[in-house]
Amino acid sequence: MSSFPPLPPSWDTSSRGYPDKTTRVEHLMLSKHLAHCGALQGPLRVAWMGISRLHRMLAQRALTGTLLIALLAGMAWLVL
Question: Which of 12, 64, 65, 71 is the most buried (most CB within 10 A)?
């Protein structure tokens, strides 16, 4: 079984696999930027995940939900 030597750190999108040539200050600025963006998108991401879960749950029960709504509407029409 062959083992590969560990690669030096690199930013795949900016250095295309070559060793990272960014300074410590640039790393710090990038970390601050990512933390700031993550804090801004945190509540939106949580809301979006909740909506997605609700959508999946309702999509799985679409036929049951449709029949239940039709039954309730029919009962309300008969009572009124």
Answer: 65
